[in-house]
Automatic annotation (TrEMBL):
<dbReference type="GO" id="GO:0005096">
    <property type="term" value="F:GTPase activator activity"/>
</dbReference>
<keyword id="KW-0343">GTPase activation</keyword>
<dbReference type="InterPro" id="IPR008936">
    <property type="entry name" value="Rho_GTPase_activation_prot"/>
</dbReference>
<dbReference type="Pfam" id="PF00620">
    <property type="entry name" value="RhoGAP"/>
</dbReference>
<dbReference type="GO" id="GO:0035023">
    <property type="term" value="P:regulation of Rho protein signal transduction"/>
</dbReference>
<dbReference type="InterPro" id="IPR000198">
    <property type="entry name" value="RhoGAP_dom"/>
</dbReference>
<dbReference type="InterPro" id="IPR047886">
    <property type="entry name" value="ARHGAP20-like_RhoGAP"/>
</dbReference>
<feature type="domain" description="Rho-GAP">
    <location>
        <begin position="1"/>
        <end position="169"/>
    </location>
</feature>
<dbReference type="GO" id="GO:0007165">
    <property type="term" value="P:signal transduction"/>
</dbReference>
<protein>
    <submittedName>
        <fullName>RHG20 protein</fullName>
    </submittedName>
</protein>
<keyword id="KW-0597">Phosphoprotein</keyword>
Length: 180
């Protein structure tokens, strides 16, 4: 899934913003959930992007860990960019190894898409708006106003992560997928 998004995302206008066919999404999700192998290369990249966001939303406690929610949300309130990056790296160290590996690939994909934002109209801000709610959510539900404010903060955080992913995760993030 990530490999396809890495390959096709940078040249796809509105990736993560546009939805694929709801019927196809539902059918593919049912197949994937039941363990049936599917060839996503034969499907719309928008369906694949929707499936990926759905996968992220179904990670128990979120990939960034709802237990660290308050710390993630307050990262951008810290001093300069260097201090923010160090704080983010410390938070990443507290995540399970599987989450960290997946985050590196996710931000490798998002970075690749953002690098061609003139073509696909998905700059770091637009990508963050689309993907942030799938990466972190509060451990308890809240009022719509508080939830809206939270989404704004987490979107700003994800935008910062995309813009600084090479400094946060290392320059090798740009070559995680090798020569595809």
């Amino acid at each position: 899934m990530l490999s396809l998004l890495y390959q096709e995302g940078p040249s796809t206008k509105g990736i993560f913003r546009r939805s694929g066919s709801a019927k196809t999404f539902k059918e593919l999700k049912e197949k994937l959930d039941s363990g049936i192998e599917v060839d996503l290369a034969c499907e719309s990249i928008f369906v694949t992007a929707s499936l990926f966001k759905d996968f992220l939303r179904n990670i128990p406690g979120s990939i960034l860990s709802s237990q660290l929610c308050d710390k993630w949300v307050s990262v951008l309130d810290q001093g300069n960019n260097e201090e923010k990056i160090k704080s983010i790296q410390r938070l990443i160290e507290q995540l399970p190894r599987a989450n960290v590996v997946l985050l590196r690939y996710i931000f490798g994909v998002l970075h690749g898409i953002e690098m061609r934002s003139e073509e696909n109209q998905m700059n770091a801000f637009n990508l963050a708006i689309c993907i942030a709610p799938s990466l972190l959510w509060p451990p308890v539900s809240s009022t719509p106003d508080i939830e809206s404010e939270f989404i704004k903060k987490i979107s700003s955080l994800v935008q910062f992560l995309i813009q600084n992913c090479c400094r946060i995760f290392g320059d090798e993030i740009t070559s995680l997928f090798g020569e595809i």
